[in-house]
Amino acid sequence: MHIHFLDPYRPGHSPVHRLDARLKLVLALAFILSAGLAPDGAWPAYALWLSLITSAEALSELGIAYVLKRAALALPFVLAALPLVFTLDGQPAFNLAIGPWELAISQPGLERFLSLAFKSWVSVQAAILLSATTSFPDLLVAMRALRIPRLLVAIFGLMWRYLFVLADEALRLVRARVARSGESGLPGIKSGGRLAWRARVAGGMAGSLFLRAFERSDRIYMAMVARGYDGEVRAFPLPGLTGGQWTMLTAWIGLLAALLALAHLLW
Amino acid sequence: MHHSIEIEGLSYSYPDGHPALRGVSLHIQPGEKVALVGPNGAGKSTLLLHLVGILRGQGQVRVCGLEVGDGNLGRIRAMVGLVFQSPEDQLFSPTVYDDVSYGPLYQGLPEAEVQARVDAALAAVHMHGYARRVSHHLSLGEKKRIAIATVLSMQPEVLVLDEPTSGLDPRARRTLINLLRELPLTMLASTHDMRMVQELFPRMVILDEGQVVADGPTRSLLEDIGLLEAHGLERP
Q1: Structural domain tally of chain A?
Q2: A-side interface with B, Cβ within 8 Å?
Q3: ipTM of this complex > 0.85?
């Protein structure tokens, strides 16, 4: 029994899937950066960013609904920006009465909050699209090509490899607990134990999982050293980008830059 | 008198669609000791997980006369002691005492009763005096015996073991076999240890590709070299 649902990759043959992982990574980062740098309240420009990412989603054959559903998972984090609505100075949009208190909701605060929410929403969609159409090993290769420090890439790779092993281990622990969580069948005795006791058991499980992860990392390291690991991760050099890929990359980055400039100039 | 284990036409597929069990039927009488053998991936562990309702397939599973279903899971898990292959999974608490007392405490039994059961379970596996030890630091043989104690403390009617002797050295294996022989419970054990099967289990069930391909007296099945070889098994 293994856990597969953590892997966001959805194999496919769409043009987005076939695109070189390096291009996809750079474009996704450029998209997120440009959306992040856009001025607040540039709503017409936002529509263009949304249409860009939505077209890419349609092209990827993942289904727009699939991406939107996953993107919704990121929305609760946007709430971190909610205090802006009350704290930013400016024209009050309206007053909110909660019992004896009255809260002033400022116009610029509201605008900034909604802009932030929108920008994070399209950015998360770009990240989802990237991870759903690019297998993680390809993504690692792309990161190396972008000169992201090799140690960091190696850590990402090992994390990815062993995340599933750990998740499986956690699953087996939980199963062992479930298998022994019974009812005595005696009248007047309720099963389940006290909350504090259950919390202690769960804490013990988390602790033993940590201990095992720690020991496993030791064994993995020894297995790496045994095969000649010296702290340096080596890999074959990658083939360079073709002329067509360079043109495409430049064109898209140019487009995003133009969009950003437009947003700043017009709104 | 009901059977200890009654499985009728049980089928199960993994979430990815790969079939693991295909129409398994198995009946085990109270007090019977049955070995479940077969190659890796035959579905042995999957079958065992159905006995406590952790996995639920199509077909009928009854344990100690109770249907394995939503209303009965608590009672069934108290009556079936499932010992997992790896004691690392079974022992999820910091100390031996915490682990052995988990089942009775979960059931909400009074403190004196829990203490008595922990003592009895540790005595049954010849590990009295280990209650305060840290599970993490025990040897594999000790961990296996503690793992059995963690289910004995629930006073189950059926003991279900997943590869009880895997990874043990000869002495630890011998201790465990003697221990299993002493326990007067209905037993179903999945294993690759054919010598243990010969010694301990009068009845043997061969599972291959999710199907029961043979079920009969161990002695006669072990004579059938062709059958054993066809299913990746060796004569002890």
Answers
A1: 2
A2: 1, 4, 169, 172-173, 175-186, 189-193, 197, 201, 204-205, 207-208, 211-212
A3: no
Give the predicted TM-score (pTM) of the model: 0.74
Contact check, Cβ <8 Å, B94/A208:
yes
Domain hosting residue B143, numbered range = 5-230
Co-location of A210 and A141 in the same domain: no
For A162, the domain range is 149-176+205-229
Indicate whether A189 belongs to any domain. Answer: no
Question: What gap in Å lies between CA A155 and CA A228, rounded to an integer?
Answer: 18
- Residues in chain A, total: 267
The pLDDT tens digits for A140-157 are 889 988 888 888 888 888
Contacts (Cβ under 8 Å, ≥6 apart) of A250: none
Interval B219-233 mean pLDDT: 93
Of B94, B103, B150, the CB nearest to A182: B103
- Domain-embedded: residue B235: no
Helix (H) or strand (E) holding B206: strand B203-208
Question: To which H or E segment does residue B82 belong?
Answer: strand B80-83
pLDDT in tens, A69-89: 888 887 888 888 888 888 877
- In this structure, the answer to whether residues A138 and A220 fall within a common structural domain is no
CATH number for B41: 3.40.50.300
Give the end-to-end CA distance of chain A in Å, rounded to a whole number: 54
Residue A136, domain member (yes or no): yes
